[in-house]
Amino acid sequence: MKIELVINQTKKNLEIQPGETLLETLRANGYTGVKYGCGSGDCGACMVLMNDEPVNSCQILTASVAGESITTIEGVGTMDKPHPVQEELVKAGAIQCGYCTPGIVLSAVALLNRNPHPTDEEIKKAIDSHLCRCTGYVKIIEGIKNASERL
Amino acid sequence: MLPKGCNMESKKPTTDLKTVGFSVNKIDALSLSTGRAQFTDDFSAPNTAHIKLLYSPHAHAKIKSLDTSEALKIPGVIDIIHHGNVPAILHTTAGQGYPEPSPYDTLMFDSTMRFVGDRVAAVLAETPEIAEAAVSKIKVEYEILPALLDFEKATDDDAPKIHPEKGKGYLIGAPYFPEKNIAAKILIDVGNLEQGLKESDFTFTETFYSHYGSHSALEPHAAFSYLDERNRLIIVSTTQVPFHTRRICSHLLQIPIRQIRVIKPRIGGGFGAKQEVFIDYIAGMFTLRTGRPAKLVLTREEVFVSSRTRHPMRVTVQAGVQKDGTIHAIALNALMNTGAYGAHALTVLSNAGSKVLPLINKAPHQRFNGTTVYTNLPVAGAYRGYGATQGYFPLGQMMDIIARKLGIDVLDLYRKNAIRNGETSPIFEKLGEGKEGVEQIIESCGLDECIDRGAREIGWSGKRNKKIRNGAKVRGVGMACMMQGSSIPRVDMGAAYMKMNEDGSFNLQIGATDIGTGSDTILGQIAAETLCVGIDDILVTSSDTDFTPFDVGAYASSTTYLSGEAVRKCAEKIRLQILGVAAEMSRMPVESLTMKEKMVFYKGGKLSFEEICHYAMYTANQFQIQASESHFTTASPPPFAAHFAEVEIDIETGDIRVVKYVAAADCGQPINPKLVEGQIEGAVVNGISWTLTEEFLFNEKGKLTNPNFGRYKLYSAADLPDIKTIVVPTWEPTGPYGAKSVAEIGINGPAPAIANAIFDAIGVRLHSLPFTAEKVFQALKESAR
């Protein structure tokens, strides 16, 4: 079946299978910054923004979100022009394997968009739906805090 | 005689470091944060086919018949492999040096199923969905056998035998008794334990249990294979051990090593789980059989059920102590459960002794008595800490028990008994990895400072034995000390290759395998320091079996120390070549030259690296400035650490919360302090999570009932205590720029430190992990009786 999605502010007409998840659709169409981590909505590696709100793309059937606006990590910042959240995570040493990072960046961006100066507790809450096995979260929280101070 | 430069003091402590010792940004961090970095599943090729596996639903069974005819009829199914159509080649999935110190007891596909999750067959199909559908159409008839699910009964006469087949065992000839379900056995004696216990004023015996654990690297295991234009087999793999993967695939696929190239892209964490080679050859087998690119990506459930875990261990500690706190005799008696196959069955066991007993080095009477047994449970393997975690859980509590009995501060007990600079342990020599160990004298040890600074940070003297109470909540503090190692001496080898480019940059090619640890960055820093350039001038490539030199891979806390020294030596050779060219260009003696900030200075002038490389490439006596170096070691200098935990326990519910956690560690000269902290923090949180919330739950048939992150509870950000990491710098003379490794040690502390803190709060000693609220509550109830 055909479906229209707005991905990173560009209209896309995509061919999908009826039972396909948004995670599968995005990855099949080159948005490979979106990662599979668990398939059960428990780890946040597949997080994208739908209408600016973080959602686990592995838990969404693509057919059910026709016409919605999706932001993936590819729409947040680039190597040449990273988002402050990306820059500050890099500087804080918050990225080890980096597999969870795109999802965390998106949740952090969504947080800072609605709350530019969050407390540590608010940051922890915003990224609590993400699992990271490498960092122990300490430097991720620090990086997001530093980004908030720049905004 | 060498000229003076910015970094001539690599073998002596120096304050003049320019790159080493600084927290430069991790070189792949930006590409990771923007989603540009490529992981295994991000690779694809036209015409890629997909693999799904069929697993045994039974803990122990024989396949009576296997019928793939219905599955093969499904349109889009390309091939199915199983025990009936692939060669039966015994091997170990443990990615270790060769010959591996693990028993050869595994087949690619077997007709006997030894745990719920053992592999029955694999399907290759046009899409993952078709492969999945075909898996469900494979008809298997099983003869169900009695299962061995209690590892403490493994050696009973009437226990089911798990590997009765002939021909299994170690290439290295290590003790192996499958007729008793024994996969490994070790007995090491120093002095005379029984006599030592007799001579002691006090003796202690306690038994502790550590449990299964999932590595839970966020990226699941994956392999993608294809044939290149010359029909060589290329395998892109989520591996910690690309060279071992190549070797093991060559063995299993029966093609020469030269026909295989293993590429390691970015890896989404490993922690030991990806030191196992168990899916790469399945993808490779399909590609060889069909010519098709083939991809296998495990689901999270498959990672839980069928990959690898931490070895559960029962350890009985015996200690003999004099009134003054001198530990006179110490013994660890370990029974380890390796599950259905013996991956790392010998070496994880030996590390429970070899990385643990040397901390209490002065006891004249010591014993390590270990047995590894098979069960019909998930296969264990390498896991960060590698047995030391299972050894420090009992030792750390025993130290607390001794200190309380003697009425002394446990900090003083460690100060009195722990190993120090200039000392050795007889265990170093007696207990190695699959062979005898290597004698070594400790040349760097910051343990005392770790203890002092950690105690200050947690507020030890104000909180210990105070049982500070707030309503139903009581607080307590506990601590534990530990060491690990840096590489496996006389076993591990790492190599590096470098060449210079015209713009004064350098390619650094290393087999050392960055799996998210930041090793590409710190190895780049070591090269940059040696060559007086910035980290941006070093272009790091790891690891590709065609294009990078050999390295054993990312395990045994080896990369910084071992591969780092290979890189330093390699860069040193490049430096001498640059100086040689500069001497020729300037007509000045080499001894008079100084290298600094991408320049070589001589009396009356200077030459840039660009000029020097251009001269070498294009002007006269042309040659490529290039070098390679290898490094192996005869020492494994331990990092040291002291961990402190403050917990709060709700005595009405048993709910336990870690309020604060302090990890003080000595890893020699930190190459990149932020990355060192990151290693410690990640290991600590993994350790806390394993101690308190993570648990494998099995049903009565040996099936894991919680193979998902919803019910296998990893710590998330909201669970975090206040974590303080203290890096205590020392200087290790045998390491690159004084460095030791730090990847594993941090995971050894949480279990004993939290156990001791719980005792401090409520006077209850917990002997088995994990410390769930229910367990604490039960223990409180029992102690109230």
The H-level CATH homologous superfamily of the largest domain in chain A, spelled out, is: Beta-grasp domain
Average predicted local confidence, pLDDT of chain A? 97
Taken from the alpha-carbon principal axes, the silhouette of chain A is globular
Instruction: Specify the CATH architecture of the largest domain in chain A.
Output: Roll
Counting DSSP H or I runs of 4 or more residues, the number of helices of chain B is: 19
Order of neighbouring strands in the sheet with most strands of chain B: 3-5-1-12-9-10-11
- The low-confidence parts of chain A are none
Provide the number of structural domains of chain B: 4
Low-confidence stretches of chain B: 1-8
The gross shape of chain B turns out to be: globular
Strand content of chain A: 15-25%
Tally of extended strands of chain A?
5
Q: Any idea what the radius of gyration of chain B is?
A: 27 Å
What kind of assembly state do the chains in view correspond to?
A: heterodimer
CATH architecture identity of the largest domain in chain B: Alpha-Beta Complex
Structural class of chain A: alpha+beta
Biggest sheet overview of chain B:
7 strands, mixed
Description:
The complex is a heterodimer of chains A (151) and B (785). Chain A has 151 residues and is an alpha+beta fold. Helix content of chain A is 33%, strand content 15%. A 5-stranded mixed beta sheet of chain A has the order 2-1-5-3-4, covered by helices on one side. In chain A, a hairpin with a 2-residue loop joins strand 1 (2-7) and strand 2 (10-15). In chain A, helix 2 crosses helix 5. The longest helix of chain A is centred in the C-terminal third of the chain and has 14 residues, at 101-114. The termini of chain A are far apart. A 7-stranded mixed beta sheet of chain B has the order 3-5-1-12-9-10-11. In chain B, strands 7-15-14-13-8 form a 5-stranded mixed beta sheet, with helices on both faces. A 5-stranded mixed beta sheet of chain B has the order 16-17-25-26-27, sandwiched between helices. In chain B, strand 13 (313-321) and strand 14 form a beta hairpin. In chain B, helix 8 (347-354) runs parallel beside helix 9 (388-406), helix 9 (388-406) crosses helix 10 (410-417) and helix 9 runs parallel beside helix 18 (750-762). The longest helix of chain B is centred in the last third of the chain and has 28 residues, at 559-586. Chain B is globular, with a radius of gyration of 27 Å. Chains A and B meet through helix 2, helix 3, helix 4 and helix 5 of A and helix 1 and helix 17 of B.
